[in-house]
Amino acid sequence: MNMDLPSISIITPTFNHIDFIRDTIESVLDQNYPDLEYLVIDGGSIDGTVDLLKSYGDQIKWISEKDDGQSDAINKGLKMARGEIVGFINSDDLYLPGALEKVGKYFARFPAKIWVTGKCRTINIHGDEINKLVTMYKNLWLNFNSTKILYILNYISQPSTFWRRDAIDQIGFLDEKLYFTMDYDYWLKLAKINKPGVIKDYLSLFRLYPSSKSGGTVKAQFEEELSVACKSAPSEALIILHKVHNKIIAALYSRLRGI
Q1: Relative orientation angle of helices 182-191 and 70-80, to the nearest 10 degrees
Q2: Strand pairing class (129-130; 115-123)
Q3: How many angstroms separate the CA atoms of 28 and 56, rounded?
Q4: 77 with 11: CB under 8 angstroms?
Q5: Measured in Å, how far apart are the chain's first and last C-alpha atoms?
Q6: How far lies 16's CA from each of 20, 36, 41, 247, in Å?
C-alpha cells in the first residue's frame, strides 16, 4: 500500500449499541489503513459498550460521557481528529474491505477535491441486503453528480462519504439542531465549495431496521430535509421539485409498506 496516502480519522458516535458496535469496529480496524485514527464517541452507554472499547487497547481512542445527541458526538470527534481526511460511520453500519484505501488513493490523486463519496448497500438487522431498488435509484443520480439535483434529493450515502479536515475551517461543524439530516445539511455546505468526487465502488453497508433512527417515520425525515434545502437552495424551482420528489417517494414507501 502506498505510504504517501493521507492520514484518515474515522469517528463512530454510539449509545447502547452493543449488539452491533463490535462488527462496526472490526470493519474499521480490518481496513489495515497505514495511517488511521479511530475515535469512538460514546454517550454514556450502560450495556457493556465501555468494557468492549477497553478491550481494544490503544487501537481505538474513545470517550464515554453524556452528550446532546448524534451530531454533538460527531462534532466532539471532529474536534479531536488529527487526520487529514475525516468521516464518520454509525455504530450499526460497516465499511467494506478496502474502502479506506480507495478513499486515501482518491484524495492523493486529486488534491483539489475536498470531499468524496461512493456507493452504499443497505442491509437489515441480520446483514442481508435489502432495498435494492432504492440503491439503484441513488446510484443513478450519483452518476449525474449534480449540485442542482442534490437540492432536489439526497443521493449521497453518509457512511461512504469523506472530506478534508481543512474544510471544517470553511464551513464549521455539523448543525446540532438537526435530528435526521445533519449529514445532508453538511453535504450542501460542502457542495458550495466544490461538488464531490465519486468513487464508483461500494464502500459501506448501511443497516436499516425498525428501531434504527432511519427506520422511523419518513414524514419527519422529509420535513427536516426540506427545511435544510430551503435554507440554501439557489432557486424556488429547486424547492418545488424537492417537494414533488418527496411526495412521490413518500407515496411509494406507503404502498410498499401497505399503508
Answers
A1: 50
A2: antiparallel
A3: 12
A4: yes
A5: 50
A6: 9, 25, 12, 34
Cα–Cα distance measured from residue 126 to residue 151, given in angstroms and rounded to the nearest whole number: 33
pLDDT tens readout for residues 55-104: 999 999 999 999 999 999 999 999 999 999 999 999 999 999 999 999 99
Q: Using the structure block, give the residue that is written with the C-alpha cell 467494506.
A: 96
- Work out the widest C-alpha separation in the chain, in whole angstroms: 53
Cα–Cα distance, 138 to 181 (Å, whole number): 16
The C-alpha atoms of residue 227 and residue 135 are separated, in whole angstroms, by 24
Q: How far apart are CA 91 and CA 42, in angstroms?
A: 10
Cell 417537494 belongs to residue: 243
- Between strands 115-123 and 161-164, the pairing is antiparallel
Domains of the chain: 8-256 (3.90.550.10)
- State the average pLDDT over residues 197-205: 98
Secondary structure in 3-state letters for 165-226: HHHHHHHCCCCCCCCCCHHHHHHHHHHCCCCCEEEEEEEEEEECCCCCHHHCCHHHHHHHHH
pLDDT of residue 214: 57
